[in-house]
Design a protein that fits this description.
The two termini are 31 Å apart. Helix 5 (112-118) crosses helix 7, helix 6 (120-126) crosses helix 7 (133-151) and helix 10 (190-199) crosses helix 12. It is built from 13 helices and no strands. It is globular, with a radius of gyration of 21 Å. With 276 residues, it is mainly α. The chain folds into two domains: 10-49 and 188-275, Endonuclease Iii, domain 2 (Orthogonal Bundle), CATH 1.10.1670; 80-179, Orthogonal Bundle (Endonuclease III, domain 1), CATH 1.10.340.30. Bound molecules: iron/sulfur cluster (SF4). Residues 198-199, 237-238, 243-245, 248, 250-251, 254, 256, 259 line the site of iron/sulfur cluster.
């Protein structure tokens, strides 16, 4: 299926910035593009897109796997505990922002015992560059105490026990189960939620609905790494404001009605610059 021509209805293709038409025209065209993209996203969110066939889903994951055979998450960590801490810190924050703060933190506290000893005030000062740091510091100290009291200072390999920890919800538990324990879970973050709905691969109104759908449709052999491939694809290719459909390796399979193909490398560079 690779190399197949991408067919799009002329109506579904947002107009491109006019070449050489001046800054005003380009700006207006970009606004029009965004409007068309929002409309296409709304249509996708209503579940109005054609269904993917099993063969198409398998082909999409075959390509994602071929392009990145050993995908890794981007949150730095050195053991299951520091992974758990990093994921808790990443709520409503970027991985890059968390990675800036955690090396100094993990040097001082890479176990629940050390974290508890560090104390909330010192912890707050180490993570103050991360959003919601006061609440997160409070949760991390309480979480460390709970790990010591109930799990011998170890991160439990158990969803219910993970979700019972302060500041830990289903998404965090899924990441820990997947990355630390090799479970084929799919943690639905903002990128996967958007990607699932936009492409028609897994349409749902809540992260749990999207996760449940993905667990149904992703072929078993791809499930362990599906979470990483989808997050990376959503973060770097199928971005919220300007998806890079022109370089997307699954564009011919994707059902999004707003797929765009930029007509020149100059326009592609402009789109990339806009995202940077
Ligand atoms: S073609 Fe690719 S980048 Fe464009 S909407 Fe579909 S998955 Fe996203």
């Amino acid at each position: 299926m690779a190399g197949k021509t991408i067919r799009q209805s002329p109506k579904a293709v947002p107009s491109l910035p006019a070449r050489g038409g001046g800054k005003g025209n380009a700006k207006a065209a970009r606004r029009k593009d965004r409007k068309a993209q929002n409309k296409a996203d709304a249509e996708a969110g209503r579940g109005a897109l054609p269904q993917w066939t099993n063969a198409e889903i398998a082909e999409a994951f075959r390509r994602l796997a071929a392009a990145n055979p050993a995908p890794r998450g981007e949150l730095e960590h050195i053991n299951p505990f520091t992974l758990l801490v990093a994921v808790v810190l990443s709520a409503q924050a970027t991985d890059a922002g968390v990675n800036k703060a955690t090396p100094a933190l993990f040097k001082l506290a890479d176990t629940p015992e050390k974290m508890e000893k560090l104390g909330e005030t010192r912890l707050r000062s180490l993570i103050k560059t991360i959003g919601l740091y006061r609440t997160k510091a409070k949760n991390l100290i309480a979480l460390s105490r709970q790990l010591i009291a109930e799990h011998g200072g170890k991160v439990p390999h158990d969803r219910a026990a993970l979700e019972a920890l302060p500041g830990v919800g289903r998404k965090t538990a899924n990441v820990v189960l997947n990355v630390a324990f090799g479970e084929p879970t799919i943690a639905v973050d903002t990128h996967i939620f958007r990607l699932g709905n936009r492409t028609g691969l897994a349409v749902g109104k809540t992260p749990l609905e999207v996760e449940t759908k993905l667990m149904e449709v992703v072929p078993e052999r791809y499930r362990l790494n599906a979470h990483h491939w989808l997050i990376l694809h959503g973060r770097y290719v199928c971005t919220a404001r300007r998806p890079l459909c022109e370089t997307c390796i699954i564009a011919d399979l994707c059902k999004w009605p707003g797929k765009t193909i930029l007509s020149s490398s100059a326009e592609q560079s402009a789109a990339h610059r806009e995202l940077a």
